[in-house]
Amino acid sequence: MKAAGMTARRQNLVSCHNCHLLCDAPVPVEKQVACCPRCGSTLHSRKPNSLMRTWALVFAAVILYLPANLLPITITSAIGVTQTDTIISGVIYFLHSGMVPIALVIFIASVFVPLMKLLILIYLLISVQRRSRRRLVDRTRLYRLTELVGRWSMVDVYVVTILVALVKLGAVARVDAGPATPYFAGVVIITMFAAESFDPRLIWDVMEDDE
Amino acid sequence: MSLSELIACHECDLLTRLPELPPGGCAHCPRCGCLLQRDRPNSIEKTLALSFAGLVLFIAAVSFPFLAMKAGGFEQHSNLLTGVWLLLEQKMVLLAMVVLLTCVLFPLAGILGLLYVLLPLHFGRRLPRAEVVFRLVSHLQPWSMMEVFMLGILVSLVKLGHLAEVIPGISLWAFAVLIFVLAAQAAVLDPHQVWERLEALR
Predict the structure, then answer these.
(1) Which residue of B has its CA nearest to A150?
(2) Which terminus of chain B is less hemmed in, N or C, by CB atoms within 10 Å?
(3) Do both A77 and A29 map to the same domain?
(4) Interface test with B, best of A2, A11, A12, A19 (most B CBs within 10 A)
(5) How many angstroms away from the CA of A196 is the closest CA of chain B?
(6) Per-domain boundaries in chain B
(7) Both A18 and A101 in a single domain?
């Protein structure tokens, strides 16, 4: 196990979330917020209500994840035949037509990444609440990963937009955005906010109680 | 020891003394491994050059045709914004807004915001509210998703390839180069240096 080390909070210092300026911890005054003297953002030692906010956003994303995957994401009409596709049926279609790389991109970006992100965030939240002291570095790495890859899930939303814009060939073929699209965009955006509201310092705070 | 020699890791809150960085070197948190600081020589000038290049490419990317599709005697041209308008026509206002913000407005705001802060800084001045603008730019960064959009284009091209002939337009090439310019810009920008210069000019 790693040494506890001296944290900014124990020294009564606050590091600005935005510009990382180290300041003396502000004396709390009621109904007033302390601001960073350099960049002007609000100063706090830990992100406020981090666990509650992250839980709320994770729950919202889990709820939206269902319609996002069960409802059709595109409605294709070609020469009088209408076909609706969910995310998964699109992946299966690509697999059958031999376009494995595209199937992988869509599967990883639209199904795997959002689900992994939610599971990782839930694991981080529970382990922080249970005051776990295990695998602190690995858990910080997991957090970094969720922050980094989340945005790539938007790719399916963009594919739908491009298809809708391009495939407007009169009676020959047209593509419309299905009802799942806004739900799916919601999942991606809400999980991005959830990752942002989680404070990785909470993972390490348990070390301070050792001594 | 003065506070300016210390840095608190923004992922685990450990206090560390910042070492003197060699050119191009970087410092990591000894406890969690998070990147604390990287020495980026001529950061402001390099970022400025790339922002100007980005602005030119951005104008080209939104004003020229993007893709054209040919099938069964029909031809459909579209530029970056037609997709957004078509979503609006289908009453998918929320989705149209998401695409408009993440692929057009946020990247543009990022480029303009950096120019607003860094151009005067290069000449040793600062414009009013430069801190607010620079703070906004750093908040907008994760929401500017042009490179994800590019992946979306590639996927759509493969998807449509067997259905119809797809002809890439000038704007697509500008867009592809813009993504690399924006990535390079994010890599050379040193926020720490900008904050220190802004503070010194106050």
Answers:
(1) B142
(2) N
(3) no
(4) A19
(5) 10
(6) 1-39, 41-200
(7) no
Sign of CA dihedral A65, A69, A72, A74: positive
State the pTM of this model: 0.88
B6 in Cβ contact with B17 (< 8 Å): yes
ipTM of the complex: 0.86
CB B123 within 8 A of CB B201: no
Neighbours of A35 (CB within 10 A): 14
As a whole number of angstroms, the distance between CA B65 and CA B69 comes to 11
On whether both A120 and A205 belong to a single domain, the answer is yes
| Same structural domain, A76 and A153 | yes
Buried b (16+ CB within 10 A) or exposed e, A73-111: bbbbbbeeeeebbbbeebbebbeeeebeebbebbbbbbb
- Enter the CATH code of domain B41-200: 1.20.140
Query: What pLDDT, in 10s, does the model give residues A8-60?
Result: 888 888 888 888 888 888 877 777 788 888 888 888 888 888 999 999 999 99
- Pair of tokens at residue B77: 């041209």
Q: Are residues A55 and A75 in the same domain?
A: yes
Give the Cβ contact number of residue A112 at 10 Å. Answer: 14
Are residues A5 and A83 located together in one domain of the fold?
A: no
Residue A35 domain boundaries: 1-45
CB-CB under 8 Å, A163 with B160: yes
For residue A203, the tally of other CB atoms under 10 A from its CB is 25
Residue A99 sits in a domain whose CATH number is 1.20.140
